[in-house]
Amino acid sequence: MRSSVLIAVALLALGVGGLASYPLTPHPDPTFVTMRSGGSVTEPAAVEVAHAGTHAIWATGAVGPCRVTTADGGAAPVAEPRPRAEWVSRAEDDAVYTRIATFEARDAGGYVIRCAGDPAAPGASVSVSEQPDLRVAVTLVMAGAVAVVAAVALLLVTFIRSRRRTMV
């Protein structure tokens, strides 16, 4: 019984550790593309993407919804990302970037991003990267959930068996 409880506590600790990795953190770190803007988060920013595909819009500070247009003025599809992801930039004094949107680049080339927000808000900025790889982070969270369920099940089985032994 004692070993079962110790195993359950270890599983519970591992599970909580895995669940604590939410919001998800991409591995490896996102590689941002170069953006040109007027310096305010609310001013349009030009971005050059090297590949077609899904790209992530990351923000620090108070930034609202974003719109993305192609170089010729057509709209690029923008979606709210699921699941939530955050990335801490060690190179920028631990600045926290939150993935606020994704957009679909039909072709490599230039795009313009316009975001809502308070232009006077300190520390507000927007960056763009290719879609981050969240497989490691998702695996950690799922493993954490499984470990918590296994720990609870093991504790219940141990408790029920110990009650049956005392009743006999």
Structure summary, number of beta strands: 10
Q: Strand percentage, roughly?
A: 25-35%
Specify the structural class. Answer: alpha+beta
pLDDT averaged over residues: 79
Query: What is the distance, rounded to the nearest whole angstrom, between the alpha carbons of the first and last residues?
Result: 17 Å
- Total count of domains: 2
**Sheet having the most strands:** 5 strands, antiparallel
Task: Give the strand line-up of the largest sheet.
Answer: 1-2-9-4-5
| Cα gyration radius (Å) | 23 Å
The number of helical elements comes to 2
Low-confidence stretches: none
Shape call: elongated
- Helical residue percent? 25-40%
**What series of H and E elements makes up the topology?**
HEEEEEEEEEEH
Keywords: Membrane, Transmembrane, Transmembrane helix
